[in-house]
C-alpha cells in the first residue's frame, strides 16, 4: 500500500457554548519552546523535572492559539496567531477559521492580549490584510511601547523582533483608521472586558468573557509552559518585560480562576488550550483540560 504521508493534523478548531456566546478555539500552529533556557527564577533542574512528570522535555512544543467569541451581535477574535512570522510553525489561523465556518471578513473586532509577534502577526499574510472590516484593539500601554522604536534599547535582545512584527502587521490597520487602542479595563463590548495583567508586556491584558453567569478568562501569555508555570507560578521567562510583575499577574489569575471555577483559555497551552485550574498547594496549581466532545457542548 502506498498511502500518502500527511504532514499535518486535523483542522484546528474547537467550539463550545458559554451562555449565549459561542467560543471557538483556533489553532494557528505549534512551535518548539526552549523552556530550560528561557526560564527565569527556576531552581537547577526544576524545569526538566517538571516537564519530565508529563513525559516532556525541553524544547517542548507550545501552541499558538487564538479564540473567537460569537456574541449575539458581533464576531470578536482574541489574538490572531503568528501569521508569516513563525515560518511553517504558524499561519494556519485563517484556514482554521474558514474550516470552522467563518469568513475573516465577518470578524467585527479583534482584541489583542499584547503585541508580541505570535499574537499580532496573523493580521497580515503575504502582504494581504486578512481582516478587512475589523477594528483592532489593544491596551494603550502596549501600543505606545511596541510601536516606539526608542524602546528597543530598554528590552532584552530577544525582544527586538517584536517591534518589527507589531509595526509591519499593524501598519495597514493604522493607515485605514481601524486601530483603536484602549485605556484601562472598562468593557469593550457587552460581556467582554479587559483585565489589567502586566509583566509579560507593559500593557498585557487578559479578557474576561461572561454570558448568562458563565465565565471564561482568556489569559493570553499569563502561562507559557503549562507543565512548569502552573505548578510553580514563580517561574518567569526571558520574554517577560518585567518578570516580577508577570509572576504576580500569574498568581492572581490562577488563584482567582481556581477559587471561582472559571473556564480558562491560554495561548500556548496544548490545543484547544481550554480548561480549568485547581489549587493543589499554598502556591501551586494544576491544569485540567476540557473534555473533548464531538458535538458542540454546553459545559
Ligand atoms: Zn505568546
TrEMBL record:
Metallo-beta-lactamase domain: residues covered: 63-268
InterPro entries, sorted: MBL_superfamily_lactonases, Metallo-B-lactamas, RibonucZ/Hydroxyglut_hydro
Highest taxon of the lineage: Bacteria
Record flagged with keyword Heme: no
Secreted in keyword set: no
UniProt entry keywords in alphabetical sequence: Hydrolase, Metal-binding, Zinc
SMART domains on file: Lactamase_B
PANTHER family associated with the record: QUORUM-QUENCHING LACTONASE YTNP-RELATED (PTHR42978:SF6), QUORUM-QUENCHING LACTONASE YTNP-RELATED-RELATED (PTHR42978)
Similarity comment: family membership: Belongs to the metallo-beta-lactamase superfamily.
Name recorded for this polypeptide: MBL fold metallo-hydrolase
Species name: Sphingomonas natans
